[in-house]
Specification:
The chain is an alpha+beta fold. Helices cover 21% and strands 21% of the residues. The protein contains five helices and eleven strands. Strands 5-8-3-9 form a four-stranded antiparallel sheet, covered by helices on one side. The longest helix is centred in the middle third of the chain and has 14 residues.
């Protein structure tokens, strides 16, 4: 006994030796597209867009230099924030140690290239934790004071103290990573230190270890008794 065609198009039916069965609704459009154009491949029926955002340029912002930025100065975090002081994505990191400064995009690029040259042929992934989004404006030589801020010169990044600049992840020996970060630190202005994933965060310049709380760091300095203070003063003549 044959069944009816259910008023479906020919491409949306599954024909067997005995009867015609209607296909599910979610498979009918794909089969119809394949029968209507035999030369069309399955790859062309997929989505032509991606839900993943494209990689942004970390050496220049997307907005451009429409508004002139002030020079500014990165503040030392003393309110309890430890953001950006620990390794998040990688296994090792390069952290600024001395004080805050402004690093140009060219210097950051040279530091990243020094790491890549040292790790050439290795399997790794480099993460950048800072971006050059501050415009630097300068005036020419022998220009009188005033007459505006000047013209755009280059992009720079404000890097606070104890901030992570680069992170590395991969099947690498620790000594090789230390050497790569040493070469990058020599190219960059300032002093830097090598950190691992799991090291304690830093608030300002103080490591927040076990037993160190925000209340303990914010309370005023304790006054020691006089006998303890006097005992630390060296005697002018030996007893």
């Amino acid at each position: 006994m044959r069944t009816s065609n259910f008023s479906l198009p020919r491409c949306c039916r599954f024909r067997s030796n005995f009867c015609v069965f209607p296909l599910p609704h979610h498979r009918a459009p794909l089969l119809a597209a394949l029968h209507s154009s035999p030369r069309q491949s399955i790859a062309e029926t997929k989505r032509t867009f991606s839900s993943t955002s494209p990689r942004q340029d970390w050496l220049a912002p997307k907005r451009g230099h429409n508004q002139k930025n002030r020079k500014g100065r990165p503040r030392v975090r003393t309110g309890g924030s430890t953001k950006g002081t620990t390794v998040v994505w990688g296994d090792y990191g390069l952290r600024m140690r001395d004080h805050d400064r402004r690093i140009s995009a060219k210097q950051l690029q040279i530091g990243a290239e020094a790491i890549r040259k040292r790790l050439r042929g290795q399997r790794y992934r480099l993460y950048t934790r800072v971006c050059a989004n501050i415009g630097v404006y300068t005036s020419g030589n022998e220009v009188r004071m005033g007459k505006g801020k000047g013209s755009f010169d280059y992009w720079a990044a404000r890097v606070a103290v104890s901030r992570i600049l680069f992170e590395l992840k991969g099947d690498l020996h620790e000594q090789i990573v230390r050497d790569a970060f040493r070469l990058a630190g020599n190219k960059l202005p300032g002093l830097y230190e090598f950190v691992r994933k799991g090291d304690p965060p830093v608030m300002g310049i103080t490591e927040v270890e076990a037993g160190t709380t925000l209340e303990k760091m914010q309370r005023p300095r304790l006054k020691l008794p006089m006998d303890i203070t006097a005992g630390r003063i060296p005697a002018p003549t030996p007893p």
